[in-house]
Amino acid sequence: MSTGRSSRSAGNDARSDARERALHLLYEAHAKSESGSSVVESQILPVDDLVLEIVSGVDDVTAFADEIIAENAIGWTLARMPVIDLIVLRIAIFELKSRPDVPTAVILNEAVELAKTFSTDESGRFVNGILSTISKKVRQ
User: Fold this and answer.
1) All structural domains of the chain
2) N or C: which end of the chain has fewer CB within 10 A?
3) CA torsion 41→52→17→122, rounded to 10°?
4) Tens digits of pLDDT across the chain (140 residues)
5) Which residues 6+ apart lie within 8 Å of 84 measured at CB?
6) Cβ atoms within 10 Å, residue 76
7) CA–CA distances in Å: residue 85 to residues 11, 102, 118
8) Cα(55)–Cα(94) distance, rounded to whole angstroms?
């Protein structure tokens, strides 16, 4: 995963930046086999409230998210997915489930952009395909 500022961050709003920072923290949590909240607590500098909301929210919905991802990722197991894709999907599912103020199209677009920026060449299409199906089930 790239550690430098990406070109997608230039000119983006605070919510986009928070999603990207949450992705980094959740990736670190995965690498350390810790919760996202635990990684946030170990940060030297304070973490923005929106980043904290996303990380904590993903911690809370991970079991639900993993279940719905597994049901809809035909031909894929969670273990076989790129870690970044899985984390991006979890962030999007948290937002779909818990942030009715954010339009579905924005959530999907942000997830696809994160996957395209930080994961494999095919990740944008993969994340988009799964989220298109899942979003209809999570947000009715």
Assistant:
1) 13-138 (1.10.940.10)
2) C
3) 90
4) 444 434 444 446 899 999 999 999 999 999 999 999 999 999 999 999 999 999 999 999 999 999 999 999 988 999 999 999 999 999 999 999 999 999 999 999 999 999 999 999 999 999 999 999 999 999 87
5) 1, 23, 27, 114, 115, 118, 119, 123
6) 15
7) 24, 21, 9
8) 9
